[in-house]
Amino acid sequence: MSTIILGIESSCDDTSAAVIKDGVLLSNVVASQAVHEAYGGVVPELASRAHQQNVVPVVHEALKRAGVTKEQLNAVAFTRGPGLMGSLLVGVSFAKGLACSLGIPMIDVNHLHGHVLAHFIKAPNEEFDPPEFPFLCLLVSGGNSQIILVKAYNDMQVIGQTIDDAAGEAIDKCSKVMGLGYPGGPIIDKLARQGNPSAYTFSKPHIPDYNYSFSGLKTSFLYSLREWLHEDPDFIEHHKEDLAASLEATVVDILMTKLRKAAKDLNVKEVAVAGGVSANNGLRNAFREYAKKYGWKVYIPKFSYTTDNAAMIAITGYFKYLDKQFCTIDQPAYSRVII
Q1: Rounded Cα–Cα distance for residues 337 and 339 (Å)
Q2: In whole angstroms, what is the distance from residue 189 CA to residue 236 CA?
Q3: Which residue of 85, 124, 184, 291 pairs with 172 in a disulfide if CB–CB is 3.0 to 4.6 A?
Q4: b/e map of 40-73 (b: 16 or more CB within 10 Å)?
């Protein structure tokens, strides 16, 4: 008998629903919110309102594309946290209501676990080569920068993380200082491909163990930019490609240096990357280079699995369903958590 899981993701500004059948992805629908671009960042109140408008049509479309009726579902998996509380409440409430109306189990999913387990999403007619346990996963996004030792789908240990800003957050803020718009990550990535990564040097932190820090880099970038703009008011326009390339190269070097140390110390050769920043071209190239240099087997997600999506929630829910790890209706959403 088949196992069909509906996944719902609403942790930030993307409303998403996905259907997985026996571990195979049948649909993955995402509704993004362009309203935040005018504000230079996600506005929580606007995000939650948009989720309320989007959740029903997105779930309907996911079921339609999968060729599945709601009566065929075995369970509903949903992002319980971390994320924006208002956004989470929409997805959590809808998922609980749907599960109760159908009389099927509800499965709560840690959003960060979902990003890590995105590597286990199996799409029809595509090569499937998931990581072998144990493996290291570099989880990098606008809100998180962590090195995670993954021993099993339900056994993850954070061995290193940022003590201040996340990598994606630092990139977004530097992009904003340059007046390049929001979100800054894709803009910096595009400009960096045309620039010289060695053109400028910015501060790199000296943090113990496997932890990260990006606040110093952000400050170094800001102060350097102020000095250059004082000498040339049009400095950014004349050098934005080199600035983007140098910023990206610094962030990637900080990330990879600690990841390399962890892999060496733990003698792990299976290394993955996940999260929104894993879409960055410079980081992806660095993973391929390290694979050749250090004999790693690397796992780089499809672009559609890098940002927030329900496919990663559904696959995590599928694993938890097989182990009968269900959630009770009184379990609340949470905004902050450590894996």
Answers
A1: 7
A2: 16
A3: 184
A4: ebbbbebbbbbbbebbeebbeebbeebebeeeeb
Positive or negative, the Cα torsion across 291, 193, 120, 157? Answer: positive
The band of 36, judged by pLDDT with boundaries at 50, 70 and 90, is very low
**Measured distance CA(80)–CA(104) in Å, rounded:** 17
CA 207 → CA 138, 143, 210, 255, distances in Å?
17, 19, 8, 12
186 with 285, same domain: the answer is yes
**Is 332 inside a domain boundary?**
no
* Residue 329 counted as domain residue: no
- The count of other CB atoms within 10 Å of the CB of residue 100 is 12
Q: Are residues 273 and 253 in the same domain?
A: yes
Q: What is the pLDDT of residues 191-203, one digit of tens each?
A: 999 999 999 999 9
Cα separation, 117 vs 1, in Å, equals 24
| Residue range(s) defining the domain that contains residue 62 | 4-127+305-322
Does 331 fall in a domain?
no
Domain CATH for 14:
3.30.420.40
Same domain, 293 and 313: no
Residue 182: pLDDT band by 50, 70, 90 thresholds?
Answer: confident
**How far apart are alpha carbons 112 and 110 in whole angstroms?**
5
Q: What is the DSSP letter of 166?
A: -
Report pTM: 0.93
Q: How confident is the model at residue 183 (pLDDT cuts 50, 70, 90)?
A: confident
**CB neighbour list of residue 283: distance below 8 Å, 6 or more residues apart:** 140, 252, 255, 256, 273, 277
